[in-house]
Design brief:
Elements (H helix, E strand, L loop, with lengths): L10 H8 L3 H7 L3 H28 L5 H18 L1 H10 L5 H25 L8 H21 L7 H12 L7
Helix pairs in contact: 3-4, 3-6, 4-8, 5-7, 6-7, 7-8
Length: about 180
Amino acid sequence: MADRGYLNATVADIAAAAKVSRRTFYQHFLDKEACFLAAAETGRDLMIDHLEHVMAQVLSEPVQPLGALRRGIREYLTLLRDEPSFARSFYLETAVAGPRAIESFERCQRWFAGFIRSWRETAGPVDQSVPDYAYLAVTDATNEAVRRTLRAGGDLLELEDSVMYIHHALLGLVIPAD
């Protein structure tokens, strides 16, 4: 699906890429949508587990809160860069994979918004005037930057400063000059 797109990929294409028969495919999945959802949810869960582990490690070290945020952003972008098929499928194909895929993606967005809010609470005083939707806006803006970069074939790691700026602009963080 990362190569052909969700709409153009067939069950035969998926089975061939997985080196299984169509019969074996159907023993595991009802249809293409079920396969996409399983792959997206597995990838999402692996990404979340990785980021939770990294941030727990970072927050256990003597590091400035913005340094921790930058490291988390770098880990997130590196993970997507290192898993291009997942990144392309999850970020570019979900919108056309149907309402269940979109709901799955939105659950992931809500998790990220909560993760960012938790990080902010751990990092220091939180401005209570920042509405919950601002945290969702951070994830939306970050994901749109990722989608644009994937479509253009760019380097996701080049988004690090832009994603830091998104956090600054939408959450009112004070980011010291280098």
